Structures are given as C-alpha cells and as structure tokens.
Design the sequence.
DNA sequence: ATGAAAGCGCTAACAG
DNA sequence: CTGTTAGCGCTTTCAT
C-alpha cells in the first residue's frame, strides 16, 4: 500500500471512508445520512457501508452542523437544578423534546441565577434556550439570540415566549381547601429570593383567602435558601408565636419548605393536622409519603417542562413554526389527597 | 455606502466585523479570543472592539470547535435522571466540571437505560462521557469513543475509568448499626433491574450481617420500578408475613423505597422504629425529614459526581493528563442521625 | 502589526 | 448514478 498519510489513532473521516470504498466523499455523505434512496447503486452502497463499519466511521456532528448552518442544542438554565421542582421540569422537558435536539444544562456557578451563566448561554450558538424562574433584573439585562422560553418568570417580555403555571387557580384551590376546613388565620413561609413567581403564589393565595373572609394574618417569613433545613430552623423559631397569634394553617412557597415546617411541628409537639394545617406548593412525587397530612398544590412541574419542549420543538423543527409569541399554559391546581382535619 | 450584501437578520460573523472595522478576519479572531496581547495596535483593537459591540458579534462555537478540532461537550446518561440520587450525582458533576466544558444530559427515551441513547452518545463527538449505573449487558455492547467514566457500574472495563461507592463500607456501617440495636432477622426490598451495583449493596449488607450473627432471613422482594409508590404497594403486601417470620428490620436498596415502607408501616399500624426498623441507602437531602426514625446510609452521590468531574477535567483540560486508567473513590458510608430504637 | 490563504469535516448544488 | 466544487465561520501558520 502507499504510505499512510493519516494518523491511525484519529477518528475516521468521510474522506478515509471514501478512499477505502473508492468513492467520493459526497457519496459517503449521502449514505451516512440515509439519503441514498435510489441515488446510489446497491453495490456501491454495500462497499461504503462496509468501509464505514471497518473504519468505525461516524459523522462529525460539529462539521455537519457547520456545513448545514444548523443548530441542534437547546439549553436549560435554572437557579437551582438540584431542586426537585426543577428536576421535574427538566424531566418533562428532556423527555418531550424532539430527539433531533439535544439538551444541555447550564449549571449556575454561584448560588442563585447568575448572569454569567446566562451570558454564556447566549454567547454559545444555541438553537433554543429555556430559562426557568429568571428574576426581573436578569431579564432586564439580556436580549435573546435564539428562541427563548421563560418558565415561571411571572411576566412577559417582548421577543421571548413565556409559560407560567396558573398560580391564580392554585391560590383559589388552596384557599377553598383551607377555608373549607374552617381556617381563617394563615401564615406564609417563603424564600427571600426576588422571584416574581414566588410572590405571585403568595399574593394569589392571599387574594383568594380574603375573598373568603380569611387572610394571612402574620408577617411573611422568608428564608434565604430553598431548603428543608432552613425552613425547619425558621419554623422552630416562629411557630410558637404564630400559634399564639391564632394561626391555624401555614402555607409554604414550596413543599421542600413544608417538610421543614412539619418536622418543626413534630419537635415542638404541635400536632398536624389537628392543631395546625401545613400546606405547600409543588406536590413533589414523594410529598404524600413525607406526610399524608401535608396538603400540597400540584403545580405540574413536569407538564410545564413538557409544554416548553413542545413549543420549542414546534419552533425549531416543526413544519408550521408559529411566531414566537407569548403562550401561556393553564394548568389546574388541585389539592393533594391529604386527609384534612375533621 | 455600497449595497449591503448580507442579510441583516443573520448573526454577525467575523467577516462582518472585519469589514466594518476595516481589518482582516485574522485580526478579529485574535481580539475576540483575547490573544491580541502586544500583537495588535491599541487603535486597531479599539476599532475592532467597537465593531464587535455594534454588530453584537459572538464567536460561532461550532466553527471555532471545528477549526480547532476541539470538543468541549461532556455527556451524562443515567437510567433515571429524575431520581433524586442521579440529580445529586449530576449536581456534583455539573458544579465541579471545568467551566470550559459543557455538560449535556441524554435522557433515555424508554424506561430504563436504553442502548439507543448510549449509541447516540457514542455517535456524537463528545469530549467525555459519564455513564451512571450502566448494566453489564449494556457495557458488553459498547466500545468507548472518548474518555468514559463508569459510575456505580460495580465492575471495571478496559478502556474506561470507573468509580464506585464504597459499598462494602456501607454494608459494614449498616450491619453494625442494626446488629448493635439487637436485630438479627432482616428483610430486603430492592429493585429488579439488573444493576450489579444494587446487588452489591444487598450482598455487602448480607455478608456483614452474617459476620455478626445476623442475616437476611426472608427472600428478597424486588419491585419493578424505583419509586416510593411501588415500594408502598409491595410493602403493604409483604410486611405482615415478614413480621410473622420474626423480621425486625427492613433494609431498602434506596431511600425512595424506604419511604414507601414507612408509609406502609403506618397504614398497617406497625410502629417504626419500636416494632420495626426501616433503613435505606442514599440518604437523600430530605430523608431525615421524611421520618426522623429512618436510618439511611449516605452514599455521597454528590461527591461521586464531583469525582467524575475532577477526573474528566484532568483528562480533558488538565496539564498533566493521566492515562485513562481505572480509578476508584472510597467514600465512607455513615449512618444518618436517625434516632435508633432504644 | 496585519493580512492572505489553507484547511477543519461535512453538505449541497451542479455537472457529467 | 457519481464526482467535482464551493462553501459553512473560524483558527493558524506564514508572508509582508
């Protein structure tokens, strides 16, 4: 054989295959992409396929993407990807996204959403971008470079689609539930991060409670981190005074926080739900196991992710791409199967 | 001005910038990559930077990667990314990985690990690949095309690195704990999926129990899916017979399963931990909240992900890249702060 | 200090 | 049916 001009440890290229099969790279491309239908002799195709196999050739996706001017990566960024809520959103997103699109997750380097991460996302050449629970200030500083979907931002922005949970319905459902049980003095435990969506949850609840003659009667308690541990600590400190002030139900911005309140109640000897009702938003998959007496509002996180995936799929690979306007899912809030106090 | 030859809606290219700043693309490249140090006149640099700003130019990463023959994407695939255990691994992985590397998550389309997903991963041009809990049959059918790390595979394969949790130590810790509390008849609830790592957990426990005069005295119960709900259902069915056969402790392959057993116990009126001790592997972040009386073994999932990230970072961007041999972390298993029965 | 030119590996017209 | 050719947008010698 003539001297080998190529490093054998390198991954085989279409040229290598073409050489071995004694055809042109164009033919290899056709076959490798399954576009050979009736355009290439069966015999030629056989030779090429064999060469592909022996050389273990695979298309270089980078080169392919460049040549086609195609982008196939959708990025997802959330403030706290480790949080079960976002895991659920991600689950819905990833499992519904068109298989031709690949999903990459940008992990915030700092504690909450950081601008740097998002900037990095914008800088890369993405086919689409999903921003979960971005804060308003963040949105002020960025301009989309590709189809962008805002999840639970609690607001709309020109040029970006946004999808929100139906918080109002959630508030209605929860208020109905609580008032129906005879509660009128409610406390709220949330997270201090500036997320409109979190405020919305609280506000919707308050509004609906008031419409029913009840109310959040003590100042909100806001913890720094969305963790069960921080809620526990805070609840240990404030529960006694809440009880003293006649509070009979506490609602948390997220189930994770509610777990902490439940644990605090147990430690303080406050019985749930007899003495105190505890509720949270999200209804994580194991929430009912954590405590059958926990009330949670199903925010349908997975469905939210799936909706985003469908929208993106339509925009990016769909035949009838809709204008990237604002769309909004209405997801019904429902009460959990919690056994309410009688 | 001369007629514009370029579609203005297109993203600006280096050529556009060069044209506007009246320099060559080479110069633009230098500046955009921050390699202009002393190689370009301050005045030229200023002009180019301004052009970059006005055109909102950003490097096309696809083209850049192609030109440099560089790959910067690490893929992660796990059987069930929605499972909190894998979320933790992912968290450790994503937050420790070098910022120059991007992480993409491949979501299995079918129920468990599917070959298709992994094939897709192998086919793409990846810088690295992390396979979490791959089954043996899967590993038999694939050959790595890039640095590959096996997490919790329970085995080693030529050409791939593997990192496992120190299951033996976990078994020792748990056996010590249980036997120390006076248990001698233990039951095991796991998942039926063929994952050596899950068998290893069970076997290590059994081995260590026997070394201490105790044992798993009833046949293992294996559920199909790693969910709290399926464990609940199964536990409701088998707990009575276990109790009847003198079982005083049940160990689950994962905390998620243990939650189900806890709930079943409550429903059946079996008190935990007085009448029955319940333990699980993993120690998820909220496990102690689920029930303070749940014993769990911390498998340090997050640390596992972080180790993988460190290894990958070293191999891919590290100065002193080590040969991709097998490395193994020894992570200490520890008991949770569960209040054991007295 | 700057530019011209080659080429990364692939795809898509267009010839033949 | 198959090959030739011209890029995709960027990086990188090598001249000037």
Sequence:
């Amino acid at each position: 054989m003539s001297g080998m001009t190529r490093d054998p440890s390198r991954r085989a290229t279409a040229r290598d295959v073409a050489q071995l099969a004694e055809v042109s790279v164009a033919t290899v491309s056709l076959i490798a992409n399954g576009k050979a239908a009736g355009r290439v002799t069966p015999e030629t195709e056989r030779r090429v396929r064999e060469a592909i196999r022996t050389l273990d050739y695979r298309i270089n996706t980078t080169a392919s993407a460049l040549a086609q001017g195609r982008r196939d990566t959708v990025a997802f960024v959330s403030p706290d990807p480790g949080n079960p809520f976002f895991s659920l959103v991600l689950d819905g997103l990833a499992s519904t996204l068109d298989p031709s699109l690949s999903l990459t997750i940008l992990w915030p380097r700092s504690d909450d959403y950081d601008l740097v991460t998002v900037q990095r996302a914008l800088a890369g050449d993405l086919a689409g971008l999903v921003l979960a629970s971005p804060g308003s200030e963040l949105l002020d500083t960025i301009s989309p470079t590709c189809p962008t979907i805002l999840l639970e931002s609690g607001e709309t922005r020109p040029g970006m689609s946004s999808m929100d949970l139906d918080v109002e319905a959630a508030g209605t459902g929860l208020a109905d539930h609580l008032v129906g049980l005879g509660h009128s003095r409610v406390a709220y435990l949330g997270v201090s991060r500036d997320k409109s969506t979190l405020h919305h949850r609280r506000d919707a609840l308050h509004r609906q409670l008031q419409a029913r003659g009840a109310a959040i009667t003590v100042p909100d308690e806001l913890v720094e981190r969305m963790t069960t541990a921080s809620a526990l600590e805070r609840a240990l400190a404030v529960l006694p005074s809440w009880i003293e002030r006649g509070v009979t139900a506490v609602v948390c911005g997220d189930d994770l926080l509610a777990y902490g309140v439940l644990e605090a109640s147990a430690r303080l000897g406050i019985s749930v739900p007899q003495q105190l009702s505890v509720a949270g938003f999200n209804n994580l998959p194991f929430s009912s196991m954590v405590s059958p007496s926990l009330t949670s509002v199903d925010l349908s996180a997975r469905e939210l992710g799936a909706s985003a995936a469908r929208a993106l799929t339509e925009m990016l690979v769909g035949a009838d791409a809709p204008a990237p306007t604002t769309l909004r899912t209405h997801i019904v809030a429902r009460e959990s199967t919690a056994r309410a106090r009688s």
